[in-house]
Amino acid sequence: MTRGPGEVVVTGVGLALPGADTPDALLRRTACPVTGPAAEPFDTAARIGRRGHRYKDRATRLALCAALDALRNAQLIPSDGEELTVPGDTVGVVASSNLGNLDTACLTAAAIAERSAVDLSPMSLPNASSNVIASWVAIRHGLRGPNLMLCNGATSGLDAVHWGATLVAAGRVRRAVVIGVETHNAVVEDLLGRSADELLDGAAALVVEGARWAEARGARAAAALGPYERRAGLSGCVAAVLPGGAAPGVWFTPERYAEGPAGAGAGAGVGAGVVTDGPAGAVPVPESVPRYDVTSAVGRASGALGVLQCAAAIGWLARAEAGAHAETGAGPRDAGPEAAESQAAGPQAAGPPAGPGAGAGSRTAFAAGPGAAPGPGPVPVPASRQALITSGDDTADAVAGLLLRPTPDRCHPHPPRAPLISMECSR
Question: pTM score, two decimals?
Fold first, then answer.
């Protein structure tokens, strides 16, 4: 039986987006959306080539690009190849897309209705399967762990991150590639009633891994996964993820979230695609916490949103860490808890925070989240150094929330370690 993985961390990030190839670039584009002509569509052939992809739909090709980038970033694939450096059965795949192959499915159904199944191409028909994206990523890289495809509405991306982490925590795999991807085409535009320039055409991928296994192979984690919650309303979800009313350092809001003055509530109402603050009308996060809406930079992201938000949050955590080191003169393992003290900021972030406290809420209470073990163990992380991510729609009674934290070695100069036991020394 696989030993427990300890904390679940993010060891790799991959992006296949026009105009943003790193988490920091995505964060900058989110903070200051680019005006003028739209960026050129992402060229999948430049990353994965053309050979073998002629009959794959665009969503699958985008997912393959992001997954390859994340696996290389996690050092699971060498920079000059595509062969795994770990056994394939230790890696699973979880993909999220609500609309990815919608065009293939609709066009296939129309062809059968108008003519017959005889007219269908045997090369393109597999693309009509709902799990084609997750399957091709696994086939391409020999990932033989569990393979899941989620099509779960507005929360699908965060749900995928949660289920990837659950597979790791349960010992089914040591690591999992989590992908969020959407594209736009005539079928998607007609279904949503929106033009192409309003919709995402891209993908993001994460490698989530047991901290024990990441440490064993010498991989550095970019972030640690905190608690995940799924509730019927935004306010209840935020309260469950951050108990005690602690203010996070940053908030990645649901798609096109809108709010009015504190206590007044906001939202454009049912059917407008905007999350409201629930019947009480209370703003769920203090106004001093900066807000980021990733969809303002990349377009409405549907099932890819949660994974994109995690990628941008990793950019924020890296920038916060760099700011802490600049202020204290300390290295990654020397910055003490005092580097995490936060400062008040305005209600909206005009740009990325300058440091770990810039734009963060004024509260510095420690909030390790539900399930944190008391006593010896990882040092609790101040809420003001954590990124709150939420996605979903109050009108559909579905909101998901997740916290991303700095990795343990960034939270304390000497994080306590559990004593070794004889059985561990023999393995």
Answer: 0.79
